[in-house]
Amino acid sequence: MKAKDWYNIIFRSYDTLYKDEQIQKVNFIISTFRKYINSKLENGLDYGCGTGFSIRIIKEFCNKTFAYDISENMVKIAKKKHPEVIYIDRLTEKYNEFFDLISCITVLQDSENPKEDINNIYRILKPRGYIIISVLKRSNSREYWKSLLNDKFEILLEEEEKKDYILIGKKL
Predict the structure, then answer these.
(1) Residue ranges of the chain with pLDDT lower than 70?
(2) Most buried among 36, 37, 83, 167, by the most CB within 10 A?
(3) CA-based angle 120:9:6, to the nearest 5?
(4) Where are the domains of the chain?
């Protein structure tokens, strides 16, 4: 089953199943990323916003918050929690080199083509823009995820959280 179909099915129970875990992860990322940012960035995107837990990361560090997800049902829930956010349904060329920060929290391990997602993120991230990625440890090795970033991003931080690898990088 494709990730989009799966998340469109479980959207009603997602918060119940993963709320505590996601809140803990988001809090950890916010406190960790503060070390790299002195002032607010302009545009930030939560790539794979789901029901909206990770939108807090972008709101914390950016003046304008955008969100994107492949699951329409998950986005409906996120919109109720964060109606002020700008939701994008397609990452068209108008967003090329547009974002100063992109977070991608617990998304890539479900992607059919994570390398394509990384290329897409690279395309829409401004030069020297920041990327924050978390992936479930059970999905693949930390070295695998780093290898997807190495030729496009300077990796500033590698961290292990309870269930995740967290990588913070800067576009080369």
Answers:
(1) 1, 3-14, 17
(2) 167
(3) 45
(4) 3-171
